[in-house]
Amino acid sequence: MSDWNMLTLVGADRPGIVARLTRELYQLGCNLGEASMIRLGGSFTIMLMVGGDRSADEIRAALTPAVQEMGLRLHLDPVHGGLHQHLVPNLQVRVAGADRAGIVADVTEILAGHGFNVLELESDVAGDQERPIYIMNIQGYCGETLEVLEGALAPLGERGVSVDVSPVDVMIG
Amino acid sequence: MAILDILKLPDPRLKEVSEPVVSFDDALRAFIADLEETRLAGPAAVGIAAPQVGHPQRIVILDVSSRPKTPNHGHLVLVNPEIVHWEGYATGREGCLSVPDYTGNVIRATHIRLKAQDADGRESEFEMEGFEARAVQHELDHLDGLLFVDRVVSRRTDLYRRKVYKT
What we know:
The complex is a heterodimer of chains A (173) and B (167). Chain A has 173 residues and is an alpha+beta fold. In chain A, 28% of the residues lie in helices and 43% in strands. Chain A has two domains: 4-79, ACT domain (Alpha-Beta Plaits, 2-Layer Sandwich); 91-167, Alpha-Beta Plaits. Chain B is an alpha+beta fold. In chain B, strand 4 (99-117) and strand 5 form a beta hairpin. Strand 9 of chain A pairs parallel with strand 3 of chain B, so a sheet runs across the interface. Chain A: InterPro entries: ACT-like_dom_sf, ACT_dom, UPF0237/GcvR_regulator. Chain A: It holds the Pfam family ACT_6.
């Protein structure tokens, strides 16, 4: 059995979701690891590493009452590898443009073609209803230079998407 | 010379406010030599502050000169440093010898003016910008018992903060 389970949870946002779930997990004897929890649209989303000796079935059973009461959807995957596997990004790609289908695929295909490993991606749709704007911020690691990536992404500029590549400087002090 | 132990979070000594240096003597110079040896022995740190080795005095070593294209003042020993002027702000990613395996985004002033003494007590003033200014603000925080984890922001938070206009 793997030491960790990746718990995925989605549901209509409301106060108390995190408190309720983490209390249940604590009472089950689980440890919590790295997590990403964020409100997307009107939903609250959780990706959470749950450690300990409990199986996925035990975790699911313990969370079922809370999940049903709060109208959430839950998914568990055993995962290998533990904590302390952080990769530090060296490049940041900021994208903004009039919202249209295909922006993410266009940008990330080019990045992938240069071996860019996406470590974090967040995006928002801003602007107003008539003219929505898509804004995306990607941090990742790439062995190629900033200039090479800029050159590769430049054609997107001609199609109305502004793309900016900048270094991520990590200051260790 | 000796490599000193680096205190790690949550050691309560990292949260203490350090005392000003009053004696510029051989003991101070010997400690600074040890502090520099400790900085160089660990993962590539551009700076180190005395309280990180459990020595609660206002002493910082800083050297960002090895970074390409980075305006800098070379290797600096800063005793009783004080920021006398701030300008601009930017978000940047930081890590710390006292917080292994973690980096986070912190907002810092982009331009500062700094007053400090050297190991012999001579006063100087520095105009710093960018990466060097960020590094010195990070180190000076240690002297006041602050770690960068006390200042971490998410990029989203930062984004919204910039959109707030005072009316």
